[in-house]
Every structure is written in structure tokens, then in C-alpha cells.
């Protein structure tokens, strides 16, 4: 494969902190590379150097003569006064770009629903991102570098971009580098991964999943080596402590070697851990929307707001439910969270909240921190509580925030000076400290690096309360939620038994038909949402080729069945206790609950069998 570009001995420091320290990397034809690492570890800096958008303190970057490099900046670099058409194609006449099928495909995939004559400054964040991507992708480039391309993109936009990048060049032609926190995107398009950490770059073969496995093996090997070193340290320490006469009779090189061994302690990598904290008790009633209609916000001067944002919607959240919400931008995902939290009142219908519900909402912009941005990190957590009991240990506020990656020096940074990812981490920790039992997360992956996301997912895996997640991150949704609902912009909610893939199919059907996805299931209350979702799966006619989707169903159902089995055991134990006490009222109530659990298990078992048939199990 031909060499395209490379960086040799790249080094840069910001203040007293070394970000890159003698890094040497290269890019060849056919490379599909994802760059991962903690926020602030130098991912974007490395890419800017390779694109020759910035100059390192030391080292050099070389390129093949005539190499064409396209670069997507993380920040908005479009001219706000340009129209969408000018921003993308410049002065090119419509008939010129419309005659090129490649450009037409890019336009249709990214900006088909954006007003061609609108000024850039009037666009939403997601629309600006798609315009910037379209401007880049219509060009002829040998190398494309993308810095957080999935930021502000919805699920559809991310899926389209993945398809485009996979088909843009032949296998041994072209190359791209991408910095992103979207793990599904990394797995879908990348064949190599670079991890930037501690001033160096470690290369791994494969996408995100392969990188995680390889990194785990590397860490295991390092742990074995460190354990052996510790044993040697103990022996040498014992020898050195035998006293002066013994030491004088030994060769001097032995003392020097022992001291060198003791001092050779590798610098520990910062660890991230979001601990499982106490959760307030959650009763049988959580949150219900009953026949809710919400009118769209009227723009100034408008005569008619059009169809309502939500039209006669019913949704019931059960204790311990884990729900994911996907949908097009503007369909009302964030508004639905605000309805559930009580921040927004419906035009008609009811929002019922259980007496024991303690909700917490992680907003998309983390605007809650604006009112405390003069405080320091540790001061904010101390305002909530002075000490915390986690896993039988008492932790101070400083120890708690340190586990989430805020070092001693960072703990005394004012909140206004934190990066976007640090602010999101801090606000999530602040919410959990309040011991909520209903957690609502609006685009929680924005600005977070992959290590932080893993820490967040780890705590959400064991979350005992009710969880509602709005996200375009397919990896997160499939990992932490048990079922998903779609908002397609028509005022209804639809169940997605086959997850995000089914949502993309519904959207394709809508776009092809020029209207709503007919026959797709709508979510409703009293358990009918699950039944409707199952009906939608049957109507979609899943074929044997859809094994990946069936595997997701199997995994989800198995998790749900495991939880139901635990509930069944608990109910049997409670019934035995009630029977011994002769409490027949309690016994009758428990029997009703047991029958409900058994019915739900039966429904899930049928769903499992149908999916297993597709897999041939």
C-alpha cells in the first residue's frame, strides 16, 4: 500500500502539560482509522497536525506530493451569511452539480430536508453539521479527516454517513481518520484504532470492539508484569533492611539495582469509576401520560402552528423500566422528557406521577450548571452532601469526584472553566448524589470520551430505578435500555421490537411513501404498547437474513426474563411468609402480582422463541 502522509516525532505541550511526546504515525492507502482517548489527551490536536492545520512544538509532518486532504473541524466554520447552497457548492450552477450522481447522492443523504436558500445562521446545530459534511464530501479527496462528525447528527444521519464512507473508495484506495465517541460508528467503519493517551499513540487492529478486547489483554499483561515486579521489590526491600554491616559486605551494584527497581514504578493511569449510589424507594406507580396532546409552539406572526407535537399519546412507565427514545430532530424527544418531568404542561390529557417518584433530568445543554459556574468542582458536590457511603466505605466529596477523573488540581477548577465533557460528567454525578429513582438522560453521550461512557454505562447497567434515555448513540441504547420507542414527527409513539434498525426501516418507508409509516405500531398504556410493538414486528416480516436483529431481541428478552425470574422468586418468598402469618389479604395481592409476572414471562418466552427461530437455535 502506498504511503500517503505521516507524522514523525510529534511533540506539543500546553503550559506545563505534555500532550504529545515524540509520536510517530503514518497513514497509507486503504486505512480506515478511528482515534479514541480521553477528553484532552490530544486526539483532535494530533489530527490537526496531520492535516497541517496546526504546527507541533517539535517533529514534522510529510505528505505525498499532490495529496488532497479534506478536513471537518469540530467547530462550526461556515460563513453565517451564506445560503445553504452557497456554503455547499459555492458559485457552481445547479445544473453542474445536479449532473453528478455522487453529489446528488450526498445532497439527498444529508441536506434533502434543508431549505437550499436559507441562511446558515438560521439553521439548527444538526443542520449546520450536515451542511458542513456535505460541503466536504462533494469534494475529491485522497484523505478525509473528521473531528466528531456525529455530533448533532440523528440516528439516520449517522447511519447514512457510515454507509457513504464504507462505499466511497475501493478497499485499497483512499483513507480516513475519524475522532468520535460514537462506538457503533467506530465499529461500523474502522479497521484500525489509534488510542491517544499519556503523550503516546497505541495502534490496534480492528474497530472499537476489537480495541476494547486488545486493551483488556494489554492491561492484563501489564498487571502480571507489575505483580512480578512487586515481588522483586519485596525481596530487595527485605535485603536492603538487613542493616549496615550486611550492606557493606555486598557489591555496590546490588544496592543500586535494588533502588532502581523500587523507583521504577509506572505512572498510574487515571481511572474512571461512577459508583452505584443509593436510590430512593420507588413505588408501584411511576409516570403515566394519558391521552396527552401538546400543541407546537407558535412562531411570532404565525397563524397556524400546524399538527400537534404529540397527538393523544398514552405512555406508562413501570418500576425499573429501561426505555430508549429515538427520532428525527424536532420530533419532540426532549419535549417528551420535559413532559414526564413536569417542566412542560400538556395542552390536554393527564400526566400522573407516583408519590414516591424522585426524578432527575440530565439536559442536553447542561444549563443547570450556569447558575453555579462560579463554584469549584468539589464545592458543588459538597453543597449536596459532605460525605457519601458507597460499598460500605465513607468517601468525601473530593474522593468521589476524583473517581470520576477530576484530579486534585482539577477539583478546584471553577465550573465555568470545565470542558463540555467535564461539565456533563459533573452534572451526572450531581444528579446521582441526589438519590433519584427516575433518571432521564437527554443525549448523555455528547462531549464524553469512550472511557467515561464505559463508566456511565457500568453504573446504568445496575441502575435499580426507571431509566429513560434520548440518544442517537446506538451502542448506548442497545447496551442500557431494554426496549425503544420511535418519534417520527407525526405526533405518535411507535414501539421498536427490533431496535434502531427497525426505526431506520420505518424512516425509509416514510421517505419512500412521502408520508407516515402505515401499519407501524403505536405505543399505548396498560401494556398494549408491548403488544402493538410485537404486532409491528410480525407485520414487518423479519426474514432469516436478519439474524443480527434477532440476536438483539434474544439478548434483550433474556435480560428481561432474568429480572422477571428474580421477581418471581421474591414473590414466592413473600407468599410463603404471608401464608405462615395467615395474612390472606396480602396473599391475594401477591398472587395477583405473581400472575402478572407469569403472563409477562410467557409473552417474552414466545418473543424469544420467534427470534430464536430466525437464528436457527
Automatic annotation (TrEMBL):
**Which Gene3D superfamilies does the UniProt record give?**
P-loop containing nucleotide triphosphate hydrolases
Supply the name of the protein: ABC-F family ATP-binding cassette domain-containing protein
Top-rank taxon = Bacteria
Q: Which PROSITE patterns match?
A: ABC_TRANSPORTER_1, ABC_TRANSPORTER_2
Which molecular function term from Gene Ontology is one that the record holds? ATP binding
- Write down the Pfam families for this protein, in alphabetical order: ABC_tran
Kindly give the SMART domains that the UniProt entry links to this protein. AAA
Q: Which residues form a coiled coil?
A: 547-607
Q: What is the lineage of its organism?
A: Bacteria, Bacillati, Actinomycetota, Actinomycetes, Micrococcales
Every copy of the ABC transporter domain together lies at 5-223, 287-515
Its keywords, alphabetically, are: ATP-binding, Coiled coil, Nucleotide-binding
The protein's matches in InterPro entries, at most eight in alphabetical order, are given as:
AAA+_ATPase, ABC_transporter-like_ATP-bd, ABC_transporter-like_CS, ABCF_ATPase, P-loop_NTPase
Amino acid at each position: 500500500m502506498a504511503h500517503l502522509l505521516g507524522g514523525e516525532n510529534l511533540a506539543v505541550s500546553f503550559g506545563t502539560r505534555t500532550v504529545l511526546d515524540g509520536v510517530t504515525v503514518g497513514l497509507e492507502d486503504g486505512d480506515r482509522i478511528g482515534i479514541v482517548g480521553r477528553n484532552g489527551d490530544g486526539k483532535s490536536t494530533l489530527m490537526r497536525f496531520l492535516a497541517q492545520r496546526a504546527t507541533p512544538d517539535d517533529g514534522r509532518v510529510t505528505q505525498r506530493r499532490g495529496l488532497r486532504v479534506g478536513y471537518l473541524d469540530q467547530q462550526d466554520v461556515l460563513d453565517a451569511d451564506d445560503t445553504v447552497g452557497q456554503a455547499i457548492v459555492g458559485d457552481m450552477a445547479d445544473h453542474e452539480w445536479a449532473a453528478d450522481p455522487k453529489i446528488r447522492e450526498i445532497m439527498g443523504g444529508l441536506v434533502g430536508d434543508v431549505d437550499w436558500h436559507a441562511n446558515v445562521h438560521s439553521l439548527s446545530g444538526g443542520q449546520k453539521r450536515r451542511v458542513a459534511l456535505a460541503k466536504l464530501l462533494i469534494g475529491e479527496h485522497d484523505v478525509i479527516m473528521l473531528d466528531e462528525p456525529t455530533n448533532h447528527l440523528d440516528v439516520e444521519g449517522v447511519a447514512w454517513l457510515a454507509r457513504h464512507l464504507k462505499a466511497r473508495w475501493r478497499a485499497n484506495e483512499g483513507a480516513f481518520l475519524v475522532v468520535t465517541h460514537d462506538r457503533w460508528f467506530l465499529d461500523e467503519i474502522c479497521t484500525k484504532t489509534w488510542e491517544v493517551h499519556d503523550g503516546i499513540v497505541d495502534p490496534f487492529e480492528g474497530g472499537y470492539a476489537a480495541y476494547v478486547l486488545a486493551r483488556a489483554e494489554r492491561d492484563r499483561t501489564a498487571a502480571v508484569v507489575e505483580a512480578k515486579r512487586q515481588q522483586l521489590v519485596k525481596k530487595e526491600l527485605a535485603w536492603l533492611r538487613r542493616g549496615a554491616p550486611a550492606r557493606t559486605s555486598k557489591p555496590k551494584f546490588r544496592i543500586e539495582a535494588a533502588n532502581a527497581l523500587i523507583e521504577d514504578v509506572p505512572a498510574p493511569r487515571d481511572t474512571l469509576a461512577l459508583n452505584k449510589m443509593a436510590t430512593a424507594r420507588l413505588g408501584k406507580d411511576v409516570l403515566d401520560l394519558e391521552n396527552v396532546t401538546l400543541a407546537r409552539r407558535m412562531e411570532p406572526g404565525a397563524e397556524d402552528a400546524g399538527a400537534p407535537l404529540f397527538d393523544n399519546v398514552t405512555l406508562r412507565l413501570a418500576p425499573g423500566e429501561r426505555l430508549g427514545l429515538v427520532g428525527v430532530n424536532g420530533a419532540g424527544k426532549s419535549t417528551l422528557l420535559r413532559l414526564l418531568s413536569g417542566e412542560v404542561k400538556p395542552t390536554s390529557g393527564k400526566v400522573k406521577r407516583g408519590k414516591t417518584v424522585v426524578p432527575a433530568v440530565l439536559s442536553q445543554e447542561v444549563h443547570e450548571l450556569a447558575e453555579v459556574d462560579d463554584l469549584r468542582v468539589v464545592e458543588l458536590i459538597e453543597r449536596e452532601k459532605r460525605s457519601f457511603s458507597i460499598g460500605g466505605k465513607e468517601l468525601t466529596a473530593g474522593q468521589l469526584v476524583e473517581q470520576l477523573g477530576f484530579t486534585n488540581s482539577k477539583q478546584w477548577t471553577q465550573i465555568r472553566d470545565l470542558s463540555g465533557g467535564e461539565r456533563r460528567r459533573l452534572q451526572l454525578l450531581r444528579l446521582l448524589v441526589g438519590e433519584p429513582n427516575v433518571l432521564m438522560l437527554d443525549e448523555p453521550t455528547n462531549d464524553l470520551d469512550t472511557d467515561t461512557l464505559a463508566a456511565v454505562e457500568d453504573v446504568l447497567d445496575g441502575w435499580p430505578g426507571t431509566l429513560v434515555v434520548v440518544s442517537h448513540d446506538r451502542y448506548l441504547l442497545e447496551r442500557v435500555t431494554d426496549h425503544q420507542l420511535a418519534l417520527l414527527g407525526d405526533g405518535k409513539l411507535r414501539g421498536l421490537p427490533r431496535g434502531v434498525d427497525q426505526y431506520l426501516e420505518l424512516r425509509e418507508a416514510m421517505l419512500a411513501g412521502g408520508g407516515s409509516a402505515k401499519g407501524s405500531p403505536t405505543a399505548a398504556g396498560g401494556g398494549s404498547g408491548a403488544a402493538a410493538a410485537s404486532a409491528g414486528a410480525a407485520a414487518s416480516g423479519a426474514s432469516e437474513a436478519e439474524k443480527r436483529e434477532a440476536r438483539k431481541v434474544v439478548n434483550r428478552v433474556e435480560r428481561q426474563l432474568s429480572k422477571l425470574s428474580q421477581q418471581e422468586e421474591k414473590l414466592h418468598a413473600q407468599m410463603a411468609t404471608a401464608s405462615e402469618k395467615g395474612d390472606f389479604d396480602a396473599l391475594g395481592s401477591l398472587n395477583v402480582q405473581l400472575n402478572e409476572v407469569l403472563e409477562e414471562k410467557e409473552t417474552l418466552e414466545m418473543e424469544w422463541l420467534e427470534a430464536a427461530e430466525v437464528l436457527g437455535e
